[in-house]
Write a structure and sequence with these properties.
Keywords: ATP-binding, Carbohydrate metabolism, Kinase, Nucleotide-binding, Transferase, Xylose metabolism. This is Xylulose kinase. The chain has 482 residues and is α+β, with helices and mostly antiparallel strands. It has 18 helices and 23 strands. Helix 12 packs antiparallel against helix 14. The termini are far apart.
Length: 482
């Protein structure tokens, strides 16, 4: 048996997987982020440990005999977070998370430095790890002076489990300290951010074995004494492993809290100016690229909060897909990454009329999110990515209207997976299987069964293409507003 653990922003999810890759059971434990100031987002790493403990124990209570047969545990988690440890391994302050924008000025400074984009393969976004540490040096110098190690969120759990300070390529690629093409820490990038190589965790590939779990912890969690902890992958890289997106032409679109359009790549093809993320994959010798929008279902949930109707009710009111609506929505409620790299821009409704109602606003929101994902597709194609079709995952895919709309806006067929477990936690378990058994990732990380393929509405493709062009032309005007 194998375990995959995914440390998300809102909770920890753990899956127990049979040797054939099928999921026996899963468990979850919730988490909350705190926001001490506007644009700030933090969590206490101790809460991650508590949540991981609860979720693993829940599986042990339900499946004690299966847990005694676990050979490996792989981890996945939220990217970019900064966990700061002193020389004794104590946490110096709450972790600063991926969706924290306090260091936008520091990110811009790093991004402008010579060689930074060329080595990292990416714009230095405000959410990345390196600018967080520059901010720390300026605003909390007494804390910064005590930093002995910096860990990413899932790697703090790895340290708790094994006592080893390590990370893997896909998570390290989102720090702006990694030479993403060479798959190694860059002394130039570290120097630019005021950091040292000895403060960095040991680098492994995602299938690399970190070591055995601490015997006392293994006993407490109902696991065998020799269970191996495998490095795992960043959340989207692990999700790609969970849905079998490893080869050129494989990809998925995720309608989650944020929106992701990911393309697996056979080589390193960076294009930082596009604001596409170019990262190491969690499997050796591979990379992936993705466009990221910061508010996908978050935009619909925001509308639900202010209208008093839940998201499912809102989308159910839309009926059958028709031509683009008269109201335009810019989904920049938290700023934007691809293609704008703009932490300051904010969202807007345009074209509102006194006759418009809740249904018009809902349609505008799901159209706006879909148009923003089309921006990401266009940016990915500019790097040479070829995506003949996409797997559609995430909570937003429960809306048939939204899936048909997205297929039409992207101009691509979307495959809907059959019911079952897939995604980051399963990907982490698959990385553990490969790490412990030596199995070929291409044999283990297969695509899920497809329940249905949603084709674009051919009669509406041109209308939505024009509507997207109008949407794209609106950003400069919105940016120019005081």
């Amino acid at each position: 048996m194998f375990i995959g653990l995914d440390l998300g922003t809102s909770g920890v999810r753990v899956v127990l997987v049979r040797p054939d890759g099928n999921v026996l059971d899963s468990a979850e434990a919730g988490l909350l982020a705190v926001h001490p100031a506007p644009g700030w987002s933090e969590q206490d790493p101790a809460d991650w440990v508590k949540a991981a403990r609860r979720a693993i124990r829940a599986l042990a209570q339900r499946h004690p005999l299966a847990m005694e047969r676990v050979e490996g545990l792989g981890l996945s988690g939220q990217m970019h977070g900064a966990v700061l440890l002193d020389a004794g391994g104590a946490v110096l302050r709450p972790a600063i998370l991926w969706n924290d924008s306090r260091c936008h000025a520091e990110a811009a400074e790093l991004d402008a430095m010579p060689e930074v984009r060329a080595l990292s393969g990416n714009i230095v976004f405000p959410g990345f790890t390196a600018p967080k540490l520059v901010w720390m040096a300026r605003h909390e110098p007494q804390v910064f002076a005590r930093i002995a190690r910096v860990l990413l969120p899932k790697d703090y759990l790895t340290w708790w489990m094994t006592g080893e300070f390590g990370t893997e390529m896909s998570d390290a690629a989102g720090t702006a300290w990694l030479d993403v093409g060479a798959r190694d820490w860059s002394d130039r990038l570290l120097q630019a951010g005021g950091m040292r190589r000895d403060q960095m965790p040991v680098l492994r590939e995602g299938t690399g074995i970190v070591g055995p779990m601490r015997p006392d912890l293994a006993a407490e969690l109902g696991l065998p004494a020799d269970v191996q902890v495998v490095a795992g992958g960043a959340d989207n890289a692990a999700a790609a492993c969970g849905v079998g997106a490893l080869a050129e032409g494989d990809g998925f679109v995720s309608l989650g809290t944020s929106g992701v359009l990911l393309a697996a790549r056979s080589g390193f093809y960076p294009d930082p100016a596009s604001a596409v993320h170019t990262f190491c994959h969690a499997v050796p010798g591979r990379w992936y690229q993705m466009g990221v929008i910061l508010a996908a279902t978050d935009s619909l949930n925001w509308l639900a909060r202010i209208t008093g109707a839940d998201a499912a009710t809102l989308t159910a009111e839309l009926g059958a897909l028709s031509a683009p609506g008269p109201v335009r929505f810019l989904p920049y409620l938290s700023g934007e990454r691809t293609p704008h790299n703009d932490a300051a821009v904010r969202g807007a409704f345009l074209g509102l009329d006194i006759a418009h109602d809740r249904r018009d606003l809902t349609r505008a929101v799901v159209e706006g999110v879909s148009f923003a994902l089309r921006d990401s597709l266009d940016a990915l194609r500019a790097t040479g990515a070829d995506l003949p079709c996409l797997l559609a995952i995430g909570g937003g895919t429960r809306s048939r209207y939204w899936v048909e709309l997205l297929a039409t806006v992207l101009g691509l067929p979307l495959d809907l997976p059959a019911q079952g477990e897939f995604g980051a936690a399963l990907g982490a378990a698959r990385l553990a299987i490969c790490g412990v058994t030596g199995a070929d990732p291409l044999q283990v990380m297969t695509r899920p069964a497809i329940a249905e393929t949603i084709d674009p509405h051919a009669d509406l493709v041109d209308a939505y293409s024009q509507a997207h062009a109008d949407f794209a032309a609106t950003y400069p005007k919105l940016k120019a507003m005081p």
